[in-house]
Amino acid sequence: MMFREEISWYSTRLEHHMSIRIYGEKGTPVLVFPTQDAMSDNFENFGMIDTLSGYIESGKIQLFCVDTVDAATWSNVWGDKGWRAGRQESYYNYVVEEVLPFIAERNGTGILPIVTGCSLGGFHAAILFLRRPELFSGILSLSGVYDAKFFFDGWLDGTLYENSPVDFLPNMQSDHPYIQQYSEKPLILCVGQGAWEDEGRRTTAIMRDIFQAKGIRAWVDFWGHDVNHDWYWWKEQILYYLPYLLGEKELEANC
Length: 255
Description:
Layout: E1 4-11, E2 16-23, E3 28-33, H1 42-45, H2 48-51, H3 53-57, E4 61-66, H4 81-107, E5 114-118, H5 120-131, E6 138-142, H6 158-161, H7 165-168, H8 177-184, E7 187-191, H9 198-214, E8 219-222, H10 231-245
Parallel strand pairs: 3-4, 3-5, 5-6, 6-7, 7-8
Antiparallel strand pairs: 1-2, 2-4
C-alpha cells in the first residue's frame, strides 16, 4: 500500500496553518503545486496520485503536495492589488523558507526537488524555479500562465513584477549566473492548443521567445489542437515528461 501522510504547521509568514501531503517514502522529491484555489489534496482528488503510483511505490519519486493561498491572491479580483501582490510574495517566502527545508529534511536524499504543477500550479512552479533555480533540479509546468498582469487587470508593481516571469526574465542580464543554471537543468513548459488553453498558449509562446533571446536551453512544447486544459491531458503529459526529469531519457530542447 502506498505511503500517505498529511503534515500541518502554523506558518509565521502566512499567519495560519498550512498542510502538506506526502506520497511515498523515498526517491527524488517532487514539490507539487495544485490547480487554482485548490489545496494539498488536489492531485489525489483528481487521480494524479494513481497515475504516478508506479513511480511512487517503486521509490523513484516522493511527492510533497502543498496548500495555496490563491483565493487571497490570484483569484481575489475585488481585493486591493497591492495587498494581493504582497500576500503572494509571502506565499513565495513560505515555500522557500519553510517548505523547501522541510522537504530536504524529510526526504533525506540530498537531491534537489523537481517542481511541478498544472494550470495555476504550473505558474507557481515557474515563479519558484525561475527566481531560485539553485534550489531545484528541474521544472515541469503544464498549462501555466506566466503573466501575473493577467490576474490583475494589467496592473503591476514592484512586488508583483517579481512574480511575473514574462516581465522579470527579459530584464535579466545576459551574464547573470541563473542563465547558465536554467540551461543546465530540465526546464520544461508544456501547453495544449485546445479548449481553455488560450492564455496558456499565448504566454508559453512569450516564454519560448524569451528563452531563445537569452540563449536559455529549454523544452517548450505545444501539444495538439485537441489537447484541452484538462486533467486527462495533464496525466498523459506528466507520464511523458517524468523520465526526462529523472534522467531516464535524454532531455530534448527546442531553443
